[in-house]
Write a structure and sequence with these properties.
Layout (H helix, E strand, L loop, with lengths): L1 H26 L6 H11 L5 H14 L14 H29 L3 E2 L2 E2 L1 H12 L5 H28 L4 H31 L8 H28 L4 H28 L2 H4 L5 H5 L4 H9 L2 H10 L7 H13 L2 H20 L6 H14 L5
Antiparallel strand pairs: 1-2
Helix pairs in contact: 1-2, 1-4, 3-4, 3-8, 3-16, 4-6, 4-8, 5-6, 7-8, 8-9, 9-15, 12-15, 13-14, 15-16
Length: about 375
């Protein structure tokens, strides 16, 4: 736990240092660009840093192989840690960019309990008395903020990979590029399902919802950071395959938990209003399972209210009760348990050492913990 905490602090520091170097590049163009830097800092200041941690332990699974007494990050030479810290920080900046764009797509008001990026820009427009639509300005400015963060993540990744052997750098870059393509594809599939579900065969809706989980979240949140970190350290094919076998089912379990939180989560914990996924019309595995079990009238009610921008708190409570009574929550909990078990079983007999296996087990518990 101490080692993970120290890694998180190093990633925080690296992100802060990186933004400090980019601030003058932006603000010397015009002081009007200061909000881009300020909002970047805001969106990069929080979060649980799960992706950074998976990246680090993927790296450590190779770097620490055969050395159970490896020192913690604070005691290691900075030159040795610099590549993985920079790459982990690049993953966090990429994640921030994805969240900015995701909030625009979902028309979300909040992120981590604070205003989302486009709402911040809207408020700036309104308070300044500028011309035109504040909503249009907020959306356009937030898109550009997300694009800026995407570019910065790539720059920081290059900085980290410059310090590792060429073959390892190429392998890590290839995994990062694949992650970037897959999560974009997954995001498209997510918005597609919100609109195209009505024309799809009923028998395919659950599989289509699971496909969204795999590509929008599971690979990007857990599997890819693990593999990228290991690639930085020069992992071989067998080692990478073992991390993939662990990371994918755990990533699925992680997103299934997030889907439950999106419907039933406490806003003080999730940073989002309770039932936010119902407002946004997310066609998740939870919803697909509920629809399978509901009577026709209740299923029609779910379909009618899901994604309705005018949905009331009372209607959200009604849908929450329908989903709970359908048994879908229990089925999702069972799926979470089975995917976590599959992930942990994949570590058995793998080339990953006991120390890292233990840390990955702790992370598996943390990212799938019930908090509502």
């Amino acid at each position: 736990m101490a080692e993970s905490n120290q890694l998180v602090e190093l990633v925080h520091s690296r992100i802060d240092e990186f933004i400090e170097t980019r601030q003058p590049i932006v603000t010397t163009i015009s002081p009007d660009l200061t909000p881009l830097v300020d909002f970047s800092r805001q969106f990069l200041s929080g979060g649980k840093r799960f992706r950074a941690l998976f990246c680090y332990w993927g790296w450590k699974s190779v770097e620490g192989a055969g050395s159970p007494a490896e020192p913690a990050p604070a005691d290691e030479p900075l030159a040795r840690l610099f590549p993985v810290v920079a790459v982990a920080a690049a993953l966090e900046i990429f994640h921030a960019a994805a969240l900015v764009h995701d909030d625009i797509i979902d028309n979300s008001d909040t992120r981590r309990g604070e205003a989302s990026a486009h709402r911040l820009f809207e408020a700036m427009h309104a308070s300044s008395g500028w011309a035109g639509s504040r909503q249009d300005f907020g959306r356009a400015a937030a898109i550009l903020l997300g694009d800026l963060l995407l570019g910065w993540s790539d720059e920081l990744l290059d900085e980290g990979l410059a310090g590792v052997p060429r073959a390892s750098a190429q392998a890590a870059r290839a995994e990062f590029n694949r992650m970037r393509t897959e999560v974009t594809a997954g995001q498209y599939l997510d918005i597609l399902e919100e609109r195209a579900w009505l024309t799809q065969p009923e028998s395919e809706l659950l599989d289509r919802a699971m496909r969204v989980i795999v590509f929008k979240s599971a690979k990007y949140s857990v599997q890819a950071p693990l593999v990228i970190g290991a690639a930085v350290a020069g992992a071989g094919a067998e080692h990478l395959d073992a991390l993939r076998a662990f990371g994918l089912p755990l990533g699925i379990a992680y997103q299934l938990r997030d889907d439950l939180l999106g419907v039933f989560g406490d806003a003080s914990v999730t940073g989002k209003p309770s039932g936010d996924d119902l407002r946004e019309g997310k066609r998740t595995v939870l919803v697909a399972l509920a629809r399978q079990a509901l009577a026709e009238d209740d299923r029609n009610l779910l379909d009618t209210l899901l994604g309705d921008p005018a949905i009331t708190p009372g209607q959200i409570t009604r849908l929450q009760r329908l989903i709970l009574d359908s048994g879908a929550v229990l089925r999702v909990e069972t799926l979470i348990q089975s995917h976590v078990a599959e992930a942990l079983a994949a570590l058995g007999g793998s080339p990953i050492g006991a120390e890292v296996t233990g840390q990955l087990g702790l992370l598996a518990e943390t990212v799938t913990r019930r908090v509502f």
